[in-house]
Amino acid sequence: TGNCAPIRLRPGVLPGLERDLLVSPQHRMLFEGYRAQLLFGEEEVLIAARHLVDGCDVTVEEGGEVTYVHLLFDAHEIVMAEGAATESFQPGLRGILGLDGPSRARLLDTCPGLRAMPDSWGPSARPTLRAHEAKALFA
């Protein structure tokens, strides 16, 4: 709940999305097309789910308990979830601090270089829009 409450994306809000998809608020979804190209000079951009909330097709699901599952690759990747393009886990300071204690310990044991340099995983698979940029994209 609160800042960690999942975001529900309904079919139709993203190209290819076949079923409702629940993601964490900071989880980024891929958008592509001419508007991104015109506004940001990029054909594909990532947008955090929390910046997509519209109260109708994209909503915050308050209440209850949630477990997030992260897919970690050697580099930040674009993956498919329920038919929509989204991102793999990109460890960085914010992402690492967002993990519960045991998950954080497993990650840091597996990738010890992240202890000293938490933002060393590498670049984002696509440019990421800020909140005001996401609003401009959908205006």
From TrEMBL:
<dbReference type="InterPro" id="IPR036844">
    <property type="entry name" value="Hint_dom_sf"/>
</dbReference>
<dbReference type="InterPro" id="IPR028992">
    <property type="entry name" value="Hedgehog/Intein_dom"/>
</dbReference>
<protein>
    <submittedName>
        <fullName>Hint domain-containing protein</fullName>
    </submittedName>
</protein>
<dbReference type="Pfam" id="PF13403">
    <property type="entry name" value="Hint_2"/>
</dbReference>
<feature type="domain" description="Hedgehog/Intein (Hint)">
    <location>
        <begin position="3"/>
        <end position="92"/>
    </location>
</feature>
